[in-house]
Design a protein that fits this description.
Elements (H helix, E strand, L loop, with lengths): L25 H7 L3 H21 L2 H38 L2 H22 L5 H17 L5 H7 L10 H9 L6 H11 L5 H7 L4 H17 L12 H20 L10 H17 L4 H15 L24 H16 L5 H14 L8 H14 L3 H15 L1 H9 L2 H4 L3 H13 L3 H13 L4 H11 L3
């Protein structure tokens, strides 16, 4: 049996399996955080190559080449928006002095780009192109202001960029005064450049509903007097935890969706990992962003083995480990080693360390469960939540047996009675103890509490319903 979310993905509030013994590999560490400029250049080059190939292609191969070109263009657009949207929003925020205006101006430019770039191709200087479109809209907004001439002079390309601009933007979007769903939506729009329609599709709400949420969030920024600035040093740890929680929530939703649609959304998981990589670059002295990035990369390195050809979940103990991306695992280990050098342990580093233990095992039977249990003990001292206790109970099962684990799980009935994984883990332990009727009842309760199609199929298989 895996940990409470080994089959589902990383656990909210603590404890999916992780990596320890990471090699101190500076080169791998450098590769692990992708160079955005290089990625942008490569993506744009692939798109231009696709254009050239489609022009040379014969009629018989045209359809396939056009499909390839469309995907190359889409990837290139994603890279451009990720790299440029946050820069442009943060710089315009300083000029316009209004978060809502800056964010709307950039969103307008992104929508124009989405309409034109697939048809006309990505421009050689996409950042300058986006700026030109955004500048026209920004000038419309400031034309009647008394400081129009001063702001006109500031709206020249390239915009002056302060080193902390995007970091200020991230902390503004993830301010604790905002609701969690608003934090996620604002971050995706303002920093990643996603459109309202894209975010609405990702979280299974209507575009109108999401637009209202974002409007309320922007009003809250004004009403609460949330300033566009970095936290004070004494507040940094608390505010950083809030930012990391937002990114981890986004990653979890992408890694295995909570909704009834697609069981996984790799695009959301990749957006979360990109944002975390950006945070690592902007806060190079902070170990926890490194720990979270390592955790995300470790999970993504196993992505190819998580579902079978029918889209059904493959539990960790049954996964084909030859499908794991060993190079990506090594790069994630390097990130974890870099975090450890900071000598400031945190829950994400410990979660990454647990995932690493699983990744280092040649097979499920060779997993170092005593080490996993020790890491959960350390996490429990740091974050004594019910979900951490549930995940720790899985490790207890492999060290001390299912009876000892079930005793710990039963003690969590009150805080986790409405959590489907509590029932799923309890069902596995009851089954291991030969209490089949009670195990089936627990599985039925877990089935009633989850909407994810792949997880429902797994539980139905256990119940013999499929």
């Amino acid at each position: 049996m895996a940990t409470a979310r080994d089959h589902r993905g990383p656990a909210s509030h603590g404890g999916a399996p992780t990596l320890t013994g990471a090699a101190d590999d500076r080169a791998a560490e450098d590769r692990a955080v992708e160079d955005p400029a290089a990625a942008l250049s490569a993506a744009a080059a692939r798109a231009r190559l696709g254009e050239a190939d489609s022009e040379r292609s014969s009629p018989s191969g045209n359809e396939e080449r056009l499909a390839v070109h469309a995907e190359q263009s889409r990837q290139a657009v994603v890279v451009v928006f990720r790299e440029e949207a946050g820069r442009l929003t943060s710089a315009l925020m300083r000029v316009l002095g209004d978060f809502s205006q800056a964010e709307e101006v950039v969103q307008d430019a992104v929508l124009v780009a989405l309409e034109r770039w697939p048809r006309d191709g990505i421009p050689d200087q996409p950042g300058a192109w986006l700026f030109t479109v955004a500048r026209r809209r920004a000038l419309d907004l400031v034309r009647r202001q008394s400081r129009y001439r001063e702001k006109l002079m500031q709206l020249e390309y390239p915009l002056s960029q302060e080193p902390d601009d995007r970091l200020r933007l991230i902390f503004t979007c993830c301010h604790p005064a905002l609701a969690r769903e608003a934090q996620v939506g604002l971050t995706l729009r303002a920093v990643c450049g996603l459109t309202t329609a894209e975010i609405a599709r990702a979280f299974l709400v209507s575009e109108a509903t999401l637009a209202k949420r974002l409007l309320r969030a922007r009003k809250k920024i004004v009403e609460a007097g949330i300033r566009y600035r970095l936290p004070e040093p004494e507040d940094l740890d608390e505010r950083l935890r809030e930012v990391l929680a937002v990114l981890y929530l986004l990653f979890n939703e992408g890694y295995l969706s909570s909704g009834p649609g697609a069981p996984t959304r790799r695009d959301l998981a990749d957006d979360a990992a990109w944002l975390c990589g950006l945070l690592v670059k902007l806060l190079p002295g902070e170990p926890e962003p490194l720990g979270l990035l390592a955790l995300m990369r470790l999970h993504l390195a196993r992505a190819a083995s998580r579902f079978d050809e029918q889209g059904q979940i493959v539990l960790l103990q049954d996964q084909d480990r030859t499908l794991w991306d060993r190079q990506a695992l090594g790069q994630a280990q390097a990130l974890l080693a870099a975090a450890a050098r900071g000598r400031k342990p945190g829950p994400f580093q410990l979660q990454a360390a647990i995932v690493a233990v699983h990744a280092e095992a040649a097979s499920w039977s060779e997993t170092d469960w005593p080490q996993v249990l020790g890491l959960y003990d350390a996490m429990l001292r740091m974050t004594p939540t019910a979900v951490v206790r549930l995940n720790r109970a899985v490790a207890v099962r492999h060290v001390h047996g299912p009876a000892a684990a079930l005793e710990e799980v039963e003690a969590l009935a009150e805080p986790l009675g409405g959590y489907y994984l509590w029932h799923a883990v309890r069902g596995e332990l009851l089954r291991a103890l030969g209490r089949e009727a009670q195990a089936m009842a627990a599985d039925r309760q877990a089935l009633a509490l989850t909407q994810n199609a792949a997880e429902r199929t797994l539980l139905e298989r256990r119940l013999g319903a499929v």
